[in-house]
Write a structure and sequence with these properties.
Layout (H helix, E strand, L loop, with lengths): L13 E6 L4 E6 L5 E7 L6 E5 L1 E6 L2 E7 L5 E7 L4 E10 L2 E13 L2
Antiparallel strand pairs: 1-2, 1-9, 2-3, 3-4, 5-6, 6-7, 7-8, 8-9
């Protein structure tokens, strides 16, 4: 018997993601929850990308979401849609090799 996975609660939704380091992103998720169009705002204005997501619901309304960007940056989020918070970890090439950063942030639904 095959099971159909439920759509993630963020599917088809758009959020402003405000990160503790001052960065702000507009994250628009596809209707099937498998893709993300992110767009930098403020100091990151003009940066954007469409990425394929890996998604797992780890508890009710809590999702582990991960993707790799064309630049090689990897991003992983634990999104708590009940509390509208995110724990984010991203890695990128820096001086001396790969660098990782852990951040927190908030989500604001865009109507």
């Amino acid at each position: 018997m095959s099971e159909t996975a439920a759509l993630p609660a963020f599917a088809g939704r758009t959020y402003l993601f405000q990160v503790d380091n001052g960065a702000v992103f507009r994250n628009a998720y596809s209707a099937d929850g498998k893709r993300l169009h992110w767009e930098g705002l403020g100091e990151s204005a003009g940066q954007w990308e469409d990425v394929e997501l890996q998604v797992a619901e780890v508890a009710p309304q809590i999702y582990f979401v991960s993707w790799t960007e064309q630049t090689g940056i990897t991003v992983s989020h634990v999104m708590d849609l009940g509390a509208l918070t995110v724990r984010a970890f991203w890695t990128f090439e820096g001086e001396g090799g790969r660098v990782g950063e852990l951040h927190t942030g908030t989500l604001e639904p865009v109507i």
